[in-house]
Amino acid sequence: MLGGSYLPLATPASPLPMLPPNDVEDVLSCLPQALLRVGPDLCVQWCEAGFAAKTGVTLCPGSTLLDALEAGRNLDALARAIREKRAWSGHVITRALRQVRVQVKPSHTDGSAGAWLVMEPSGVDDEGAFSQAVREIARAVGESLEVDRVCSAAVVSLVRCAQVRRAEVFLYEEDDATLKRMAVSDLEGLDAPLDAFDPSEDPYRQALALRQPQLGIQRGYGDAVGSVFAAVPLCAPRRTVGLLLIYKEQGASFSVRELEMWSAAASQLAVAVENARLLREAQAALRVREEFMSIASHELKTPLTPLKLGLFAMERRIASGQPVALASVLKSKRQVDRLAGLVEDLLDASRLELGRLALDSAPLEVGQLVAEVVDHFRHAFERPFTVDVPHDGVWVLGDRDRLEQVLVNLLENAHKYSPAGAPICVKVGRTAESARIQVQDHGIGIPGADQALVFQRFYRARNVSHRNFGGLGLGLFISHSIVKMHGGALALRSREGEGSTFTLDLPRMPAHEVRRLPRRVLVLDEDVHQEATAERTLRAEGFEVFTVQSGAEALRKATHLPVDLIVLSTSATQSAVGTFLETFATLPRARPVPILLAGDERPWWAQENTELCPRHYRPDELLAGVRTVLTREKRRTLTPVESELPLVTPA
């Protein structure tokens, strides 16, 4: 009787066989194979004392093989061989995801059903294969630092040098967190669809999360069902760049030492991938810099040449005592302004890169800002502009100068890339959370492949020639950055040859904060004492008041924000009123401004429905008139539908 754990076997009918020597256990412990006796039901009848140490599988009499081995085709073949009392040899996978080689020897003892199983682990610690594979990867890296070629060289080296049937490399995309297959050793002729890899499944997820290799069972790749693979993370010094998947030949497994070696190789591959990407980024940066230097040199030289010629001509005329034409001075001034704009763009790009571009935010009414900027373009260029703003104000918290810079950039691009006479439409509206500005042109448009890149620094679409369209390629980059600093978004919708629409969304001020903003009143009265009385009364009620006897000066002073009401004295001189009305008509404004007349009777030039309050000013009468006009204006211009109607982007 053999030593170790034992369950009594059936009593043989024939004479007892010769018993083995008592020291047979000592001999078995010297062999790499482990011995096991099972019944037809796969229950263990006997196993040698060192079985677990040799195989890594813990079994004891009374337990079953099904508790220790993974279900699969080979386990089914093993069970059939035991039941059919025939020999079998193959490999099975343990619950610990290690492969073991199994030989089945049917029991020939009369009346004793079952079989002897001889098991041995099939993993190897091949440092020679590891060294050879690493040398080949290093040689491939030395020949090329292209990511694709480095990954392809790695999987080919693994298959050629090690006991690896197949290898794959998955890398994270540079712009997102998805894994993409970059190289595979032997896809041809195999059933290996690209969507078979799911990084959310184990062991891939664990390997990426723990930055440690994990073992798994291969599924769905040809006839090698049931083999073991290793998911080895590609760990660069600062981040995990992807996964190396190594599939063993059927019958081979991974030892702990082997996984350590391939983890070290994977780290070298990860560093090579990172270096390749850094080199590619550096080369791209150098190309951008060279292209920028070429464009910048051209753009800076373009205004310098006519400026130099113009100044030289003016110098000669002054030296000869001849007058200098105003047109020559204006031409030179335009070139100086152009140079100043280019330099300012370069400075803004530098400030953004260093994080030194600061915002000076304050409440800002979007419709008024758009009206002023468009009015400037309407006077500067012979082109139709249309402005569509809601009746009520759309308020944001922002830096007026920087947001004006964004609008100017968008309108300049719309003007530059549109044919002469083509209209440009600017629309202001609101969404649930944002104030929205849309600038639409009917120009050359932007190709689809370039639309995702137009907000990058120094980028210019490929249908834009430097000869016909100047610029450094910084305007949209700066605009996009400024909008992001405001917590907003700048988007593009375009079709080549049909035009572009830029959509600017900015966070709206909360309604309760808008209600707390002071209403703005402009008081125009020729009597300084009466003017002071009106100012004192209105300020006491929380109004923001502008009081200047010159109508033009008053309106220019109040131009940055919308004026809610004008208090106009009817006793002002006709010339003062005329100057006021003329200036008021020419200054940009987003919406009509109501007027409260102060005097004994309505003048001839006023409309019949214009509100009238007494003058000399009395606080109760003045405030009653102001509230009446503001309430009537609100009812006239703001209905519940208009106040909540979102701005719909046209399809």
From TrEMBL:
Transmembrane segments: none annotated. It comes from the Bacteria. CDD domains: HATPase, HisKA. It catalyses: ATP + protein L-histidine = ADP + protein N-phospho-L-histidine. Its EC number is 2.7.13.3. It holds the Pfam family HisKA. Residues 520-630 form the Response regulatory domain. Residues 295-510 form the Histidine kinase domain. Keywords: Kinase, Phosphoprotein, Transferase. This is histidine kinase. It comes from Corallococcus caeni.
